[in-house]
Amino acid sequence: MAKIFLLFSVISLLQFNLSIGQNVQGGYWFPESGFEASDINSDLFTHLFCAFANLDPQTYQLTISSTNNASFAQFTNTVQLKNPSVKTLLSIGGGNADDTVFASMAAQSPSRNSFIDSSIKLARSYGFSGLDLDWEYPQTPSEMANLGLLLNEWRTAVASEATASGEEALILTAAVSFAPTVNDLEYPVQSININLDWINLMAYDFYDPSWYNFTNSHAALYDPSGQVSGSYGVGAWTQAGVRAAKLVLGMPFYGYAWRLVNANNHGLLAPANGPASADNGAVGYRQINNFIAQNNAVIVYNSTIVTNYCYAGTTWIGYDDTQTIATKVSYAKQNGLLGYFAWHVGVDDNWALSQQANQSWGAQYTVIRDSWNCEDI
């Protein structure tokens, strides 16, 4: 009897771990990219984030603009036509959102409740499997403390709603800085550990040509001479107390174009005098490949920091190519991270980066399941 009970307990635990430990092969989509949700190859993802819902500055309820309402309402059905098992999350906020509105919402219990209740209702009514908070960024110690309170109350409300409705609880995630401190403030690590299913580390935008007068990788995996890299962020988060299995590594499907001061000085840290294109030099992977083909640009892979760059004339672009993506995904898997995500799927080039990431991750959990042998008990 004891042996049977042990078998049942271990199998139950295994099933539980498989359900909560499903890896994350994620990607963000937003309609302003001009890329249709119906064109997403959702077979390459386990989770897709629909961005962004807004926060009403008066009511603190979650809203979606009238322009995006129809596409958001149909997002889950649309991407599940190709992959019925893909999970969708509604992402809230984003880099262009007013962080002061989030700060005001999180400061008081009634406004937090307004946000939380509306977010759950909106996610359910639009068929999302979860909610993703992208507050960039809390600016004071009290705002960080209030973020912790918000996550506590959000998790409690999500659990209560699931119990009352009989549905699977909504997933709760957050997009956060690559490291556990931002603006010299520490994230509420304990609350994150307890209340969020995982966090998306935005391991990119370290450098861009509107701020720096030298070329550099904006998403290096390693930084031998400093603390500005994806691997440093992962190590800092785990040292702060967040388990690696709650971390999802962010990878950019875009790069930045610098204008070189001297076309003959075209390496990393070469002198530059601003962006070589609009949008502060931001260019999608598809555009980068077009630039390479049209200008016969030289491509370089730097394995020390793990980045690609290309150059032609006075234009220098730092970006992630398939080799970079493969190395980053392998790093995430080998270090026990939950997975990876991309910002954003609309600028991939014929799904080359997404396919490489998917292939590099491999069938991790299938191996665990298939190697299970009840005779070992």
UniProtKB/TrEMBL annotation:
Protein name in UniProt: GH18 domain-containing protein
PANTHER family hit by this protein: CHITINASE (PTHR11177), GLYCOSYL HYDROLASE FAMILY PROTEIN WITH CHITINASE INSERTION DOMAIN-CONTAINING PROTEIN (PTHR11177:SF383)
Entry-linked InterPro entries: Chitinase_II/V-like_cat, Chitinase_insertion_sf, GH, Glyco_hydro18_cat, Glycosyl_Hydrlase_18
All copies of domain GH18, residue ranges: 23-364
Gene3D superfamilies (UniProt xref): 3.10.50.10, Glycosidases
Signal sequence annotation: 1-21
Glycoprotein is among the record's keywords: yes
Cellular component annotations (GO), alphabetically ordered: extracellular region
GO MF assignments: chitin binding; chitinase activity
SUPFAM superfamilies linked to this entry: (Trans)glycosidases, Chitinase insertion domain
Keywords (A to Z) from UniProt: Glycoprotein, Glycosidase, Hydrolase, Signal
Record-stated family: Belongs to the glycosyl hydrolase 18 family. Chitinase class V subfamily.
GO biological process, one term: chitin catabolic process
